[in-house]
Amino acid sequence: MEEPAHPLAVARKARRLTQDALAAKVRAAARLRGLRSGTDRQRVRKWERGTQPDEDSQFYIADALELPADIVRPDVWPTWLPLTTDGVVPLGPHSTVPALREALRTAMDRRDFLTISGAALAALAADWAAGSTAALAQARDGKPVDDRLITMIEESARQLAGLATEQRQHTAVLLDAHLTTVTELLEHGRPAPTVRLRLHALAASLSQTVAWNRFDLGRHTQASQYWIAGLHSANAMGDHDLGAGLLSDLAYQAAWRHDHTTAASILTHALTRAQHPAARALLHLRLARTLAAQQERRPALRALTAAEKHLSDASTDRPAWCAWMSEADLAVDSGQALLDLGDTGRAHQLIAEGESLLPPARDKTRGVFLTYRAASYLSLNDPEPAAAAATESLILARRIGAPRCANLVRDLLPRFQPYRHAQGVPELLQLAAA
Questions:
Q1: Same domain for 145 and 241?
Q2: Radius of gyration of the chain (CA)
Q3: 364 with 376: CB under 8 angstroms?
Q4: Are residues 95 and 207 in the same domain?
Q5: Is the four-CA dihedral 356, 358, 360, 365 of positive or negative sign?
Q6: Nearest partner of 96 among 212, 208, 235, judged by Cα
Q7: What's the rounded Cα separation, in Å, for the pair 252 and 254?
Q8: In this structure, are strands 143-144 and 189-190 parallel, antiparallel, or unpaired?
Q9: What DSSP element (H or E) covers 143?
Q10: Tally of domains in the chain
Q11: What is the pTM of this model?
Q12: Are 61 and 90 within one domain?
């Protein structure tokens, strides 16, 4: 088995530096501090073969690679270095642990400087769509893993994910700890094949849950890395539907950030391998939303039709990650797509219908739906019910700890300015400013 490249070599090559060029930059970084470094090509080569640089040299290396000094942690060299050239760990038979490690390090070191381009995400989706599932990598050594420990983590993770929305804001540290433990077991344990499969399933589901937590907090780079890590685990398991779901989450994030070209590309690749009707319904619905945002009317309407058909074909036995998909989601997202396409009346009707169907337990989704309702009322030049819906959404978002929903309301505030004397609008503006 070919050994993965050393993180220093990866970072160096990402910046198109030879070993000589990196050595020169290290010496220059030392001179900027009024110091000297004897780094040359031979020393860089030794570092890339496992020799640990001293503490000062590690800070020079960060300068040379244009990395922020506050991520340097000399005691854990080379783990503070990025593991990828573009933020995306390539899929492969031994890629799950590196992808999980990259996600955990990104969160720990706040590596928001490592932005992931839309092109890199689309390429990852294409690689997943074209590739075959790799056999689960087996550890050659390490301590055995008791399946009772895995059962305990599974049950705990299930309970944490099943908490009421308002309580989930308090679970981030626990989920991170579970995922770290699972990563350690995959990397250093020697589990039986069935236990290893369960560990990959845990890694995928925990990564997805943590990613949504980071996304709701606006930490987009961290969210991307966790979704990518989950995709690696799903690919190792051979779970194509879960892999498609994780790709669709990355697409949802891209669309949220108005990168609809990337979102559409990712979703198109995800649809090539998704099989379960509920999974395909969700993918088509998200594709419809991003196509409508680009004013591609006919493809968007075709995607909405496909989403409706697949949802009607879906049984109650659904993958856990899309078990929540319902008529309420279909109605509201269809309405939002139609709103983007200019069909205001029908859009308003569907959004109202969908919101009425939403179960009480889905408070975060209700907050998002309320902002859609507010937007649909504004499109009808009806500011009073729009203000009522936006106010309800903002209060709900603050109660359950959902900054993403609060940001949706804030994005609507400029549209309320022409109606600042209408009933409820001054109160909304005052609440948003508080």
A1: yes
A2: 24
A3: no
A4: yes
A5: negative
A6: 235
A7: 5
A8: parallel
A9: strand 143-144
A10: 3
A11: 0.81
A12: no
